[in-house]
Please model this.
Amino acid sequence: MAVTGHWIETKIVHTAKGPHHILKLHSELIAFHHLEGRHSGSHLAETFVSVLERYKVTKKVYKINMLYQFNIWSNVLMMY
Model:
């Protein structure tokens, strides 16, 4: 299982015309974990939450995920 993080950094630059927002997209590989056994929703969930807890981002990711829906059935099952 590959877990990646994506976020947008906002920087405000003050110019003669006023503040100007510069957005920078970041993407990082957080973990690459060998997943043994079936790739069921519950097994994916256990592994995913373990990775999130290891990097102490569980609460932050949970709040963000509540804003989005998943199209892949295993990912949907993983979140419930």
In short: The chain is about 35% helix and 35% strand.
